[in-house]
Amino acid sequence: MSTTIADALELEHVESHLHPEGSFEVDDHPVPTGLEEIWRFTPLKRLRGLHQDAPLDGAAFTVDVEAADGVTAVSVPVADSARGASGYVPVDRVSARAWQAATSVFEITVPKDLVTETPTVVRLTGSGVEHAAAGHLLVRAGAFSHAVVVVEYAGSATWAENIEVVLDDGAQLTLVTVQDWADDAVHVVSQHSRVGRDASLKHVAVTLGGDVVRASTSADYVGTGGSVDLLGVYFADAGQHLEHRLFVDHTAPKTRSNVEYKGALQGQDAHTVWIGNVLIRKVAEGIDTFEQNDNLVLTDGAKADSVPNLEIETGEIDGAGHASTTGRFDDQHLFYLQSRGIEEEEARRLVVHGFFNDVIRRIGVPALQERLVEAIEDELAEHVGRIG
């Protein structure tokens, strides 16, 4: 079955404004104007030319690695790399430019049958925004391996990137990306995962920092029984633009997916965008999928856009649905807490933590979960008096 599915992936193109035709050639992707469906929410003027022709030859960053026992994490020249192993083809100009400009690929390889006790952590720290740079990351999980990979971003940078993830049959991988950039950073990243037979991917996106962060995350399947969980937590402050675009392409029968993102916003012109889409192809009988996005608007002047989509080409499925909510504090929750002697300020903190808790506890990396709770507390500390 997997060979048939792979052939179909190469031959079939979905006619949809949500899925532009991919190409490795930069010139096949016109400079976006903001009128295109996939760019209409993005503040193009703040991308520092990543979507146009700004050189991507900057080198003002460092990379530190803590690899789990048995896991290899090395940078290799493009010519010697396994780039393209996920089957990904760039679907926008920034992605195509980053693909063309990258001179090396950072490859993380989890060997077949390896079960790691500790996460592999990659930390990229930028030291300047003047010269844009391009990166490429490839994570490969061998058959029946179990591993956790955490990629952390910090400092100042103008960064265009492609990330590929490949799970062989029976692999279980948790991939966590932590966007903890400085306030002046711009990051545009395309991430694509290919999931093998009976493999399981948990992809967690934590987005806290940066001036503009636009992350496009997609997944498809090359065998039955594959499972994908896309989880996300984001917190936008005044002036920040945080954009997440999710696409699950059910290309095999009896696969499952669950997408759940939660975000909070505070401050003037804080803006978050969440675009979710699940495509259920004709071949994908017996699949089960659900996508959900919830936003908590903490102050006036903040805006959340949330657009869930489902495209269904077969009715022979176990389940498919989507949901989206955007709102302010639940006054009943506040009243309940205050009626039990909790001060209003503390009650508001508890409501925010409760809002995020369901996703945070599913990350599965205790140290990261604790760090995220602390980061949310720090975000609230400055503004809680103005929340309401």
TrEMBL record:
Residues in SUF system FeS cluster assembly SufBD core domain copies: 129-355
GO BP term (any one): iron-sulfur cluster assembly
Residue ranges the record marks as coiled coil: none
InterPro entries attached to this UniProt entry: Fe-S_cluster_assembly_SufBD (IPR055346), SUF_FeS_clus_asmbl_SufBD_core (IPR000825), SUF_FeS_clus_asmbl_SufBD_sf (IPR037284), SUF_FeS_clus_asmbl_SufD (IPR011542)
Superkingdom in the source lineage: Bacteria
Pfam family of the protein (one): SUFBD_core
Similarity remark: Belongs to the iron-sulfur cluster assembly SufBD family.
Protein name per UniProt: Fe-S cluster assembly protein SufD
Phylogenetic classification of the source organism: Bacteria, Bacillati, Actinomycetota, Actinomycetes, Propionibacteriales
